[in-house]
Every structure is written in C-alpha cells, then in structure tokens.
Fold:
Amino acid sequence: MNEMEKQSALTSILKRLFAMQAATDQRYQVRRFDAYGLEVLKVTYDQDEQVWLIEEHRMNKQYQFDDIDLVAIEIYDLLFDVQLTF
Structure:
C-alpha cells in the first residue's frame, strides 16, 4: 500500500469517527468496520463520557481510548492486519 492509499484509508476512518462524535441522536454511537466482507471490529463512542471502545473480533479483545487519533490508528492497524492475512 502506497502513502496515498494509507492517507486515504486514514482519512475515511477519521471521517466516520468525526461523524460519530457529531451525532446527537443517541448517547452511544456504534460503527462496524470490515474487510473483505467480514466484520473485523466494532467501535462504540460514548457521547457523555467522550470515550471510545474498540471491540476486535479476531482476537476477542477490547481497547478503550479517549483520543480520536489513537482510535483511527488502531482501526487502521487492525484492518491492515486482516488484509495481510489474505
């Protein structure tokens, strides 16, 4: 993957995360991220606490963040890892 594709992938991830922050319809905003049609992870944003929770399905792990940039990087890394296995 070249630098332009990496930047594009991170940009699209960040756009989805910013949309979660901006949403006002529910306290918990949930988005799913997939690769090759398989759900790799689920991200939940708690509007009240301003905390992100990533649930990684492959390794059955959860990660908590309070920084949107770290969330985007973690999502990118998890998706890229899956792409490497195919």
